[in-house]
Amino acid sequence: MSIVHGRLAVVVVNYASARLLERNLVVVEREARAVDDGVQVIVVDNWAGAAEREAATTVARAHGWTLIASETNSGFGGGVNLGVTRALADGATDVLVINPDAHIDRASLTRLVAVTATARTTLASPVITDSDGRIWFAGIDLMLDDGTMRARRKRQDDQRPYEPWLSGACLWITREVWDLAGGFDDEYFLYWEDVDFSRRVVSAGGALALVEEATAVHDEGGTQRADPELSRAKSEGYYYYNIRNRMLFAVRHLDDEAVRRWRRTIPRTAREVILRGGRRQLLQSPAPLRAYLRGVREARRIARTAGTGRKETTWS
Questions:
Q1: CA distance 183 to 290
Q2: Coil/strand/helix, residue 312
Q3: Which of the residues 7, 77, 202, 315 could staple to 186 if both were Cys, CB 3.0 to 4.6 A apart?
């Protein structure tokens, strides 16, 4: 049985997460087979060491999944590019890109199929919750005046210019969307590549659809932690790339005046990124401060390249 008018592939970018593939990707494959019983599952395994490679290989072989064993860590965007390129070459017309720590049910997949079936240049995403049902992603807007983010539900209270974007944690990508936007920009490595991809889809004439009737679950391993405050802490890479890539996006897409405006707020926005992990983490580890200093330095360096990078027409 297949309700996809073509062929579906599921692509997961893995980095040291073989145990999550067993927990989540098995569920995704089962649910996806209700949408397309010939679904192809592709795991792009970014290099994280010999033991992790062996674990990913064992899981993929046990379930009959296609494994793309990257010799390096190509980042999220680079991994998505490897996986989607393989899926399309193997005949896929639709690709579900989903994180190894996420899963989605067949009813939600059916709704994503319905939205994109007659709108083939539409990039679609479900609402994403955590394992306790709390909203993790329900649409986020990029504020164009300073590069900060705002929840979609707050639009009526904030009249500043913005651009919506969809989370790469779970995306339904048609062949037409991929051809239109040209894939992910792997220079971001981690974070903001989905913001960039969303913008390029729209700039090329496509559309974004947050399908509120569809839901995916982002399972970060449960919520039973001894210290909830400490559990908010993010990785050093999370902080660094979120600080850095904000300015990479600006140089890629905005005019020189906007880049200068975003550059002036680098310290403030970097501080906001760090505080997403709470204040107590600052007493526990030097990693947040180290990420702040590295990220701010690199963001300023990138800002100085404005005028030499690729840019598109921006808002006025």
A1: 32
A2: coil
A3: 77
